[in-house]
Known about the structure:
Helices cover 33% and strands 21% of the residues.
Amino acid sequence: MKKEKNPFGELNLFRNDQLNKKKLKIGFIGGGPNSFIGYAHRLAARFDNRYQIMAGVFSKDKKKSVEFGKSLGLEKQRCYNDYKEMAAKESSRTDGVEVVGIMTPSGDHYKIAKEFAKHKISIICDKPLTASLNEADALKKIVKKNKIFFAITHNYSAYPMLREAKDLVDNNKIGKIKLINVEYPQGYTVAVKKKDQKNILKWRLDKNMCGPSMILAEIGTHAYHLLRYVTGLEVKEISAEVSSLSDEISVDDNAFMTLRMNNKARGSIWVSSAATGGENGLKIRVYGTKGAVEWFQDDPNILKFTELNNPTRIITRASNSVSSLSMQSSRVAAGHPEGFFEAFANIYTEFADLITSSKKNLSSIPSIEDGVKGVKFMFAAKESSDKNSKWIKL
Ligand SMILES: NC(=O)c1ccc[n+]([C@@H]2O[C@H](COP(=O)([O-])OP(=O)(O)OC[C@H]3O[C@@H](n4cnc5c(N)ncnc54)[C@H](O)[C@@H]3O)[C@@H](O)[C@H]2O)c1
């Protein structure tokens, strides 16, 4: 979609649109010292100044949790012993939290989210939504019944140039989609020895905490969400091989999946932690009857766009031809790199907009429905693999 010529005309410079908007009071469960993703959530909440961090439980170890809360500047009485106490006490305060971010091991998401939903506190939860199918369905019902806002942090979908890809697809610039490929090779389990796996993989060794497959829970659900987000298509059937290529670790580390889409297109997803030297090589390629788009996390500020019988074009982030959706997701002018943290922050900021504005539907935010679909995808892929790659309906 062509925009005006002024290169800064549409840029949401430093998300100045967020100035003077209502700030929401937020608390966190999980994400304590040494956690992997806690820092990204807390930074995302503060990025555009839309949240005040007021309360939390950052670890099951009470002492550690309180120490950490205090280091963030929280009042001691709002560093709680556990999530139940926090939900009860915060909901009875006039200045209690309005939103809770949940980033504990996945198997605990349900019981924690349920408690806050009951108290009408809105939720931002990390993926996968839950580690079981029943809990995913039950949580959706609880969220709907209590009419709270809910987002799941499929943060990759908030990169500006992936949103540009989505806009091109939505505006029929690549025609009818025929082929899709998403891959996410990582290499972090390659040299892990049996004796060290507990230290490195922690709760991921327990299916009740992680779900039926480590690699599908870790990055498979992200890849699946991205495929659905960019293409707007759904997977109809899946055939998968989920395996452990390591002789040392006791969980799976690689999954190949073939997909039949609801529009007859064909797709594939490959996710791995067994790809030696692999970093965070997330990549999506979508091919249609009129063109194709390609995006690679190694170079997140560009999107490759090819129109049939024409040379490939490189579209740069925040350049004056990108869509409003993409431009509004950017903060700095073209040429200054934006990345992982800004994309994560887009989810938090848009969630604040969703709660505080009259627009009660922001389709860019991954929802509880996306969370449930992610859990169903994990289980279907694992079932297929257990049945020698039999096709399973989703
Ligand atoms: N969005 C992403 O890109 C992304 C990346 C990594 C992990 N994740 C997801 O985030 C979640 C956490 O993963 P992680 O890698 O940060 O795990 P982690 O083990 O590194 O950290 C978990 C943290 O939660 C705390 N904790 C555990 N149970 C708790 C409880 N009941 N109350 C309060 N605190 C508790 C632990 O002390 C720890 O600080 C998982 O669901 C995971 O799948 C998402």
